Sequence to fold (375 residues):
Amino acid sequence: MPMLIALTAVIQAFFVYHVYRTGRPYWWAFIILSFPVIGCLAYYIVEVFPGSREHRSARRAASELARAFNPSGELKRRLEALAICPSVGNKIAAAEEFMRSGVFNEAVRLYQETLSGPHANDPNLLLGLARAQVNNGTYHEAQAALSHLKTVDARYRPEEARLLYARTLEGIGETEQALAEYEELTPVYVGLEAKCRYGMLLKQLGFSVQANHVFKEVLEHARRFALNLDSERPWIDAARRHLVEAHAEVAIGDVPGELGQVAGQRLADPVEHDEVVARAVHLGEGNLSAHGISRLRGYGAAWDGRVDRDRVGSAQPRPRPRGRISFAQRAPSAGASKRPQPVRPPSSRPPAPGRGAADGRRCRTRAVYPRSPGL
Fold:
């Protein structure tokens, strides 16, 4: 009981400090001190939880669950509001919902309807129209909208406008110019979309090594800064998926004979592709070692029942020994010759006077630290 009372007092003190620290109304302190448990719970639910990360996660989970049960529910509500009041705000909201639903032509139509009258040169509407046209595949119209935006206000969200322009170049087939635009944009763009699209274009052009390096940078950036935003999650998943596919393709391409053919067919199958990716992620989340790649080769035979594991037993990797192996335990290669290691002769230099123990005086030692390269 004394421990419970002390714990309650500590929690009350923490909440009272939070009230004064964040500038909440002071009457919350009176409620917290008067009702120890109920007051703290009420303060957390009313004041703390709505702006917390847990509230955003719960709201995102609720919206995803509602969208899964009723995918077109939000779109119907937006269209009903548009039918009641065809304002610019309702048209923009309906266009964004059409974009989320994948109906890009309707989004383009709504954005074009908003660009009239006093909103004909609105940079926000021009940028939204260009985004909808890029997703719709009308790249030349998107370039015209971006040119108009640059004429109206060249300083309005320039990084996003450059990203859309690079996507238009990629869409019309000017891959070299798009690659140069992505390369200049990735250091200054806030977010992971530009870097991830840069890696996907590199992979499409056949630069797999450079693309994998870019995807690793995306994952490292997301891990370092703990990015968990809704806008960044698709690009993190895309980078991880491309890395896993690259490692799986390398592993399967190195397997000769019937095992490689069967595993290649399983990777090409869109239904079994997720299983390949799941196995590879389980082995190392995109960072497979040589032993992990060998294990992935063995799994390729196990996924298909037509190939018996006994028939491909020679392709199974040798188990890695536990623990570290010292250099003395490693066997030399076939062509290597054992060379005797040179033995350094002992120093014949006499000890400095006053430094040895034979002088009968105290021997003082001073630690010598290596000099830093920058000093």
Summary: The domain at 71-187 is CATH 1.25.40.10 (Serine Threonine Protein Phosphatase 5, Tetratricopeptide repeat). The chain has a mean pLDDT of 74. Residues 355 and 362 are 8 Å apart (CA to CA).
